[in-house]
Each structure stands twice: as C-alpha cells, then as structure tokens.
Amino acid sequence: MRIVLLGPPGAGKGTQAQLLSEDKGFERFSTGDILRRHISENTPLGSRVKDYLIKGELVPDDILLQLVRNFLKEKNLSPILFDGFPRTLTQAKGLDGLLEEEGHPLDLVIFLDLPETEIIRRLNSRRICKRCGANYNLITQPPKVSGRCDRCGGLLIKREDDNTKAIRERLRAYRERTSPLYEYYERRGILIKVSGMGSPLQVYKRIIRFL
Ligand code: AP5
Fold this sequence. Notes:
Helix content is 49%, strand content 16%.
C-alpha cells in the first residue's frame, strides 16, 4: 500500500505518520526528518539544503526526487507512507512515474486540514528532542519532565524553522506550490480530507476508517 499524507505545515502529518507506522507497520518517507538528519550529521547533502530549511523555503525538486528514488529501491516491497512529500507538482508527477515503474501506484492521499490560527499556535509551542527527534508540544503533548525527552532523556529544543518569519515562508510555500496537489489528487479520486482538529488519537481514528 502507498499513502501520501498531505497538508499545511504543522497540520499533524508527522504525528499521524508516527502513529500509522507504529500501529500499521508503514515504512515512513518523512522528508523533513531525512533532511534534518543530513544537516545534523553534516553530510554534503545537509550543507546543500541547510539554508532552505532554516528559511522555510522548499528544497529543489531534483534533490527530493533522488531521495525518493533511493528510498524506493530499498523499501519497494513494504507498505509506504509519504509524509511531507510530494510538495510540488513536479515531485507529484515524478513520484507517479517511479511508482508506475514498480507497479504499485498510490492508493490513497490523506489531506489533513487545519485552520491557520491553530497551525501557528501548534508550531510556536512545538519542541523536538535534540537527540532522537521525538515530537512534543508544550500545550497539547508536554513531556513528563520539563525540557527532557520521555524516550531518551535528550534535551528538548525549538525547531530552527519554528519562528514567525520561517513559519510565514512555509505557509506561503504551501499555498503557492503544495496546495495545487489537492486538486491533482482529487481529480484522480484518491484524496480524502480529514480534519486535523482534536487530539492526535481522535484524528488517527478518523484516518484509519479509510484504510
Ligand atoms: P517538514 O519537517 O516536513 O515540516 P512541515 O511540512 O512544515 O511540517 P511540520 O513538521 O512542521 O508539521 P507536521 O504537519 O508534521 O505536524 P506535527 O505532527 O509535527 O519540512 C521541513 C522543511 O524541509 C520544509 O520547510 C522544506 O524546507 C524541507 N522539505 C521537506 N520536505 C520537502 C519537499 N518534499 N520538498 C521540498 N522541501 C521539503 O505537529 C506540529 C505540532 O503540533 C507538534 O508540536 C505536535 O506535537 C502538535 N500536534 C500534532 N497533532 C496534534 C493534535 N491533533 N492536537 C494537538 N497538537 C498536535
């Protein structure tokens, strides 16, 4: 099975991707996490993409398409969840081509819908673990011990792109370049729209009804 999680920044894609991979065994292709890992490990790709992420701009399509190509070579037999990819029409068409080649077209695109005021509230209060990348929220999903990760005890930090300027840019990039994908997939009859409001578990229950 091949599923895309689509939606604006902060809509809860990463949170739902984690639940789906733990509960249903999906392999996650989470492009934000992959790119941040390259940055923290100082790889050549990390230095190429660092500025884009800090500013909240989209990384060039050719880089993302190469990443997905490599991922599919490794994981083509598993159920896959694409989280944060594709984000442009070029990426969407590139993904379609690759999935066609391997004979497993997309089954479902889940669009997570969330009003902009709630997006900004969630992103401003998000914290991530510096060591393992786990996701928290000071308002909705606080850690048991303030400032420390429940899983590994690592330090919780604010993501570098969770500031007003970068959030504004991410929302702009989403509106201009990613939102056209809604219609692209809706026309193919594979898109479902799910409200991202409510607790992570409430949202998850809405999603799995369609699986
Ligand atoms: P990426 O990491 O994918 O960032 P994003 O799309 O902006 O999404 P976020 O991770 O901010 O939010 P999310 O929807 O995953 O929500 P989350 O679950 O974390 O990408 C970062 C950057 O990488 C991009 O800006 C770009 O530069 C580059 N990039 C990545 N992919 C690319 C691509 N394909 N093409 C080009 N460039 C690319 O939740 C947010 C917060 O809300 C958390 O604190 C969470 O705990 C909380 N929360 C989640 N769900 C709920 C809920 N139901 N109720 C209450 N709180 C909740």
